Amino acid sequence: MTTKMYIKDYPRPQFVRSEWTNLNGQWSFGFDDDNEGEQAKWAEQFGGTQTITVPFTYETQASGIGETKHHPYVWYERLIEIPASAAGKRAILHFQAVDYVAKVWVNGQYVGRHQGGYTAFSFDITPYIVYGESNRVTVKAEDSMNAAQPRGKQRWEKDSFECFYVQTTGIWQSVWLEYVNATYIKEVKMTPDLDTRSVSLEYHVAGDFADEEVRLETVISLKGKQVKRVVHVVDREWLRFDIDLLHEVNGPWKMCYWSPDSPNLYDIEFTLYRGEEKLDHVYSYFGMRKISTRNGQVLLNNEPIYQRLLLDQGYWQESHLTPPSEEAIIRDIDLILEMGYNGVRKHMKLEDPRFLYWCDVKGVLVWSEMAATFEFNDDAIQSFTSEWMDVVRQYYNHPCIVTWVPFNESWGIMNVAKDRKQQAFTESIYHLTKAFDATRLVVSNDGWEHTVSDILTLHDYVESGDEFRKRYADKYSIVHNEIAFNKKRYAYADGYRYNGQPIIISEFGGVALKNEAGWGYGHQETSEESFIKRIQDLHRAIKETDYIAGYCYTQITDVQQEVNGLLTEDRKLKIPLDVVKELNKL
Prior knowledge:
Elements: E1 21-22, E2 25-31, E3 50-54, E4 73-82, E5 90-95, E6 98-99, E7 101-106, E8 109-115, E9 121-124, E10 133-142, E11 170-171, E12 175-180, E13 184-193, E14 198-206, E15 214-222, E16 225-234, E17 238-244, E18 266-274, E19 277-286, E20 291-294, E21 297-300, E22 303-304, E23 307-312, H1 326-338, E24 343-346, H2 353-362, E25 365-369, H3 378-395, E26 401-405, H4 420-436, E27 441-442, E28 456-459, H5 465-471, H6 475-479, E29 503-509, H7 528-544, E30 548-554, H8 577-583
Parallel strand pairs: 23-24, 23-30, 24-25, 25-26, 26-27, 28-29, 29-30
Antiparallel strand pairs: 1-12, 2-3, 2-4, 4-10, 5-9, 5-12, 6-11, 7-8, 7-10, 13-14, 14-17, 15-16, 15-18, 18-19, 20-21, 21-22
Helix pairs in contact: 1-2, 3-4, 5-7
Pfam family, one: Glyco_hydro_2
Domain Glycoside hydrolase family 2 catalytic: 294-582
GO molecular function: hydrolase activity, hydrolyzing O-glycosyl compounds
């Protein structure tokens, strides 16, 4: 089952136009370690001597290069065909992600700059192209080992260490091109409201609509049957309308919810007209779901849900942060479901939108987590805040995302337990996120030392179920900072207190089979039997602790030197899926 306008490999599956050009594949490539390319006018006469397979970074085997040494400046170039039939339309060049700063030229002319390694961006390149001919696109990517830029699990030293891996430099998600009329739909923010049985739509229409009437038609359907059609006059750039979703498709005056058990999605189409002329046609979808808390429980659609999450860092052996294919994305999601988990904590990475699409379609709960900085200074505050708000805006419409996690384990805010400035930073990000998105839960600092937070999340890599039971027997002492856990960490930062939030063990386990080349949490198990027994014991201890509202096991796969996955890095099973599924039965 897919949405109405699913297109394989389409890079932005929640805002689809039928005509697009995939620019992935072979590009010319070059290192520029001395940063001489701009002065040498590489945008006019390219100086690179290698080729690379986009969107894989040069550090990966999939790129065709496979060099892991850090190069701070890299260049890309390729010719793109602009058909004569597109004349009169705007050409929009899209980049799904470039780490960390991207500069773009077309036919030697500078187009623009973007900063942020995990967010999508685009440029209108119409003034720089020639229709009916080949055009040169040149990209310079600038990356650094600066710990003040959001980097997540990317190392900032020469060699990998602990749980930090080979860096990601340059283009690492899809590059593509589409053509639109001068007046077109730029974005639509969709907010479901179960309690009022409606969906709120905020439209951003770009272009000229002042002189002649422009109409926007919105059609909503479910399971192939139309349930609503509304038409509005467009007389300004931003419009907002609420649409009642009561309908008779699934019985008299029903509404279908989205949940892991029933991931119902409403198809929605936006068509823009000027007179009889069709200006734009966009396909999308949304899910009617609500996430909230009450009496120490997390509620989905106003009913308690016990979250059984799996930590997922989203790395592949040959392609690192870049999914090797859409089939690989689907296979990972299917494995998560087959193992009995109902959700995933996407750790230290903002994932490819196709991953979120398939979580929407298959009914997987997602905790979306920001890539951390590892310093606290003015530059870190500014770069983090800007990129995080782009993330929230770009991912907002995905029903699978139920929790935002801007900070993890005090990374980038190492003194948050006592430093008022760092505490204020976490509070500001919490409230800024809520100002843009009041529909989701926000965790201020996943793992410990919380400030203001919708969930109290605790990380604990205790090695036995008995030790876990003993430590968490007294809820009051844990949540009120009377006792520490996980290497002398406390639940709350100084000056903050527990107010009845749901409690989730959002990292535990991390058990590794004996492997001389890598590490896991605690001692390594020497047999499959002892491996299974230990993770069974830990799952059982958490589920038997009645005040705990969910958990997240570390982790789905091995990642480079970290070998504590349920699967190997190349997705081979360490233990039978049925064994893991049994762990997750409530």
